[in-house]
Amino acid sequence: MAKEFSRTRRLGEQVRRDLAALMRSEIDDRRVAMVSITQVEISRDLAHAKVWVTYLGPEAERPAVLKQLAEHAGLLRQQLGRGLHVRTVPRLAFVYDESIERGAKLDALIRQAVAEDAARHPDDADGHPGDDDPA
To answer: What global pTM score does this model have?
Structure first.
């Protein structure tokens, strides 16, 4: 079973690399140039691939970009099949990856909490409570 997992992971990485190049060459849309593939999950039967993407452009354009990718999924799959050495080329489903945005929001919340704590305790300059001993 571990070998099968390894194969799906290897294939996922290959699909990620090849798709990134194909998206640049096959889709003539400036917005697609700002799409980054973060991960590709391949099903165990190798029939389906979930392609996690992020978009670095305006949030309002995100639905149109995802629609553009979905419309080109068949062409990308066909082109992908020429480079992959597998019997079945997985069907592509593009999904927006919100993990980067969530991480940025969490980082902002942590920074805000630290700043508020520092404002409440100005006498504790290094941020460590109980270090009043000047040893």
So the answer is: 0.73
